[in-house]
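BUG-129 | component: ligand-complex export | severity: low

The export step for copper (II) ion jobs runs without errors, but we want the raw record kept on the ticket for reference. Input record follows.
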Amino acid sequence: MKQSFLFLILALAACTTTIPSDMHPPLLTPPPLPDLRESSLDNITEVRIDAQQFEFLPSRIDLTKGERVRLILTARDVNHTFVLPEFGIDEELEVGEDTRIDFWPNKTGFYLFYCDKPGHKMEGIINVR
Ligand SMILES: [Cu+2]
């Protein structure tokens, strides 16, 4: 009886032994989140367009059907607009600021874009092949 009691004491002592802190398993850190900005730049065609009195430069843009596009428009002198009705785009271009417009030309054809500010007769064409 005394022996089994002694065994119980030893067993309890073994169970309550603390593990030194340097033997703790390392804390699990979650994997880093994917960088969405970077992956969104994959497979996207960037086209820079300047708007100034009274033209868009370039005024003809060739695109490929099904290829995602980011237009980066900059009004160089005064505010302009960029209107591309076929794709439902109508953006104000603040002078000196870049305006990014993402769209996905999913149909071929020639599409007119223009600035609708009074007196600005600026236009161009997007050709989707
Ligand atoms: Cu304009």
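Assignee comment: Attached the raw record above. The pocket of copper (II) ion is lined by residues 51, 80, 115, 117, 120, 122 (CB under 6 Å).
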